[in-house]
């Protein structure tokens, strides 16, 4: 038997490249308003407050004049970027092509960044308001003055009773439930809580099925956003936002863009690059409710 035969052996490599488990797209992207901006900052919206009608009590009375309240919300951009190199020697040693997978991975990272900015904006303590951005309107300060907008968790997770309380708070705030879609961000833990709630899953209590392939997609007027990127405090307590779409704005200075190029300064490696410039802000606190859920 020839001892040279092993020199003819070959190694087999897969041609399949698989991305590991991750959130591949934006979950909150469809739950917000979107606008394009330029410049170092931008006035997101001009706001006019409610006025009070004056009762006319005498004939020929002077025309009453009222001072209409004005306000504004500001939005600021944040830059994100990502890059990695594929060495030419690596490509020689691998049958699989990594370039397209790197592009998809980069795009997913940028879209997750959008969600992070949106979630941060919902409960932000640094929301800039006023005609000259001279006022800071924080979430905690609003909640302390409007107790109905924060649902105490107690020792339980997400319940139908908490969703009812959130809906009540939004109704009391005069949110237009007919023309303004409602959303509620939940993690896998809160989704599982709702699966155990008979009121949320039984056709005896709802006019149409809410389960799609075993998942609760909507209930009580809320469209659920499943996300594992929600803030979890000590306890652990998850802050689940329930809100109206018109209350949240994502500003786009530069949408997700990227390019693949050859870097002559890196031994002619292939560089996959992606970037985005975005910002997010609340537009009106009364269009939000914070539902605290205990995951322990």
Radius of gyration equals 26 Å
DSSP helical segment count: 6
Backbone structural class: alpha+beta
Low-confidence stretches: 1-17
Major sheet, described briefly? 7 strands, mixed
Topology, number of strands = 17
CATH class: Alpha Beta
Q: Gap between N and C termini, in Å?
A: 66 Å
Structural summary, described in words:
It is a single chain. The strands form five sheets. Strands 7, 8, 11, 12, 13, 14 and 17 form a seven-stranded mixed beta sheet that branches. Strands 1-15-16-4 form a four-stranded mixed beta sheet. It has one domain (29-47, 70-294): phage-related protein like fold, CATH 3.90.1690. The longest helix is centred in the middle third of the chain and has 24 residues, at 99-122. It is 21% helix and 33% strand. With 296 residues, the chain is of the alpha+beta class. The protein has helices spanning 88-93, 99-122, 139-145, 160-172, 188-195, 198-201, and strands spanning 33-36, 42-48, 70-75, 78-86, 127-129, 135-137, 150-151, 182-186, 211-212, 215-216, 218-219, 222-226, 232-233, 237-244, 248-263, 269-282, 288-294.
Summarize this entry quickly.
The protein is of the alpha+beta class. It has 6 helices and 17 strands.
